[in-house]
Design brief:
Number of domains of chain B: 2
Number of strands of chain A: 2
Structural class of chain A: mainly alpha
CATH class of the largest domain in chain B: Alpha Beta
CATH topology of chain A: Fumarate Reductase Cytochrome B subunit
CATH topology of the largest domain in chain B: Sulfite Oxidase, Chain A, domain 2
Oligomer: heterodimer
Strand content of chain A: 5-15%
Helix content of chain A: 55-70%
CATH superfamily of chain A: Transmembrane di-heme cytochromes, Chain C
Radius of gyration of chain A: 24 Å
CATH architecture of chain A: Up-down Bundle
Strand order of the largest sheet of chain A: 1-2
Distance between the termini of chain B: 74 Å
CATH class of chain A: Mainly Alpha
Helix content of chain B: 10-25%
Largest sheet of chain A: 2 strands, antiparallel
Strand order of the largest sheet of chain B: 2-1-10-5-6
CATH superfamily of the largest domain in chain B: Oxidoreductase, molybdopterin-binding domain
Radius of gyration of chain B: 28 Å
Chain lengths: ~210, ~260
């Protein structure tokens, strides 16, 4: 298998039948990108810096701020992630209790960092296979490094699609909390024992 | 005017109510979000619509992207080392049917007996070197994975004289003090520029054999460049002239938007 996007030789073929070729014509036509290899490479070699630096700053931030505690999967996360998935698919009624992020989110948000590191390493292994020969070796050779790099990119697309769908499903308030860092919930506390009507109070119940 | 706003008479700051805190934080975070989002979107639009670079030795790329390519070249040149060798393979692994992609500058037949390699020295002197002269120099074989910028690669077997041996034999040491080597086909339809460290890499060959037989016309007879530390676009076929310069020599694909360095 080989990634040759000038000629679409990268495809999924089983028993002589091609199920999918990367990429079909409609893909190029929709994005207006046929025969623009040099242009694509020029963008690629600028944005690689941007994405790598962005990743480094993000990881540093999560470490320095302590946010990593909310993001790293815990022992129970791998078990719980299935329950979260079943809940999201409306197969299970209850989701496991969570902190800021649920078990599936913890795994996803940590996996994306590992994937990012993987993209940098496989990318360098392809980009400079002579100077970084040890990275190419580490990635299982030039061909396998290319396949990994490509698979990771498809992974980002899936992550992106699922992520956006989840944000839409979670609703506007959740989206606001993504930006502001908090969500306002107005709750009127219920008395534990209903003896008399609660005394009138000046305070507003905002929590 | 009342002095109510002056610092002196200002009452101690009232703590913000919860509503004020909420709206304050929302204002800050949404403001930041909108500004950052607009900057990102505007930056992308600026980059996408940026003008094409002025035509120099390179052309065909957006001006900021060309600047990025050139800066990236400088960064990655720092990790280039002649000690980093291209992986080689046993010759049994070499492709029998060697892939052929392009004939620009090497179309049709060439009279090999009449052919002479012209080496333009810095002094203005031009050496005329025949194929037999080159074949008389020590021969080096290499079996390595030839890589094309389009994505394909193929293990192939080439034979010829090491560029560094050629330089030493013809006493071109003064020329190698310059920063670039330029190569062109006899008709000057195809031409490449190579930075001196890559040209002097111990695996760079002036090749006259493929699979232990003479180069056929489609692979660049009588003499071609095999430079494993570069993509295929730099491996010029049918060399007519070799020159040396401190400025980047013209480069066919760098004029079409590709990276000038194209190193591996």
């Amino acid at each position: 298998m080989l990634i040759y996007w000038a000629n679409d030789e990268y495809r999924i073929t089983l028993f002589g039948h091609t199920f999918f070729s990367f990429f079909p014509d409609w893909f190029y036509n929709a994005l207006h990108i046929p025969h623009r290899l040099s242009e694509g490479m020029a963008f690629h070699f600028l944005f690689m810096w941007f994405f790598t630096l962005n990743g480094i700053f993000y990881v540093l931030y999560t470490i320095l701020s302590g946010e990593w505690r909310e993001l790293l999967p815990q022992k129970k996360s791998f078990k719980e992630a299935w329950l979260v998935l079943l809940h999201d698919l409306h197969i299970r009624k209850m989701a496991p209790p969570q902190n800021k992020y649920n078990a599936a989110q913890r795994i996803a948000y940590t996996a994306i960092i590992v994937m990012g590191i993987g993209s940098v390493i496989t990318g360098l292994a392809i980009y400079k296979p002579v100077q970084f020969y040890y990275l190419t070796w580490l990635c299982g050779g030039y061909h396998f490094a290319r396949i990994l790099h490509f698979a990771l990119t498809i992974g980002y697309v899936l992550f992106f699609v699922i992520h956006v769908v989840q944000v839409m499903l979670a609703g506007w308030n959740n989206f606001c909390s993504v930006i502001s860092g908090f969500e306002v919930v107005n709750e009127v506390p219920k008395p534990i024992i209903d003896i008399t009507p609660p005394p009138p109070s000046d305070e507003k119940n905002i929590q | 005017m009342k002095k109510i706003f002056s610092k002196k008479q200002k009452a101690p700051k009232k703590p913000l109510t919860i509503e004020q805190k909420i709206s304050r934080r929302n204002f800050l975070s949404f403001g930041t979000f909108i500004v950052a989002g607009s900057v990102a979107y505007g930056g992308w639009k600026w980059l996408y619509n940026s003008p094409e670079e002025a035509r120099t030795v390179t052309a065909g790329a957006r001006a900021p992207l060309r600047r990025a390519l050139n800066k990236t070249e400088l960064a990655f040149r720092r990790v280039f080392s002649n000690n980093n060798l291209v992986k080689t393979y046993p010759k049994e692994m070499a492709a029998k049917n060697v892939r052929h992609n392009s004939d620009i500058g090497s179309e049709g037949k060439i009279d090999i007996d009449a052919w002479k390699l012209q080496v333009k020295k810095h002094s203005g002197e031009v050496l005329q070197i025949s194929l037999d002269d080159i074949k008389a120099l020590p021969k080096t074989d290499i079996v390595y994975d030839f890589k094309c910028v389009e994505g394909w690669d193929q293990i192939s077997h080439w034979g010829g004289v090491k560029f560094i041996d050629f330089i030493n034999h013809y006493k071109l040491d003064a020329e190698t003090q310059l920063q670039y080597v330029g190569l062109a086909t006899p008709d000057e339809e195809y031409y490449v520029g190579i930075d001196m460290p890559s040209a002097m890499h111990p695996q760079t060959l002036l090749a006259y054999e493929v699979n232990e037989g003479p180069l056929p016309p489609k692979h660049g007879a009588p003499l071609r460049l095999i430079i494993p530390v570069k993509y295929g676009i730099k491996n010029l076929k049918r060399i007519g002239t070799i020159s040396f310069s401190d400025n980047r020599p013209p480069d066919y694909w760098a004029e079409q938007g590709y990276d000038y360095y194209s190193g591996l």
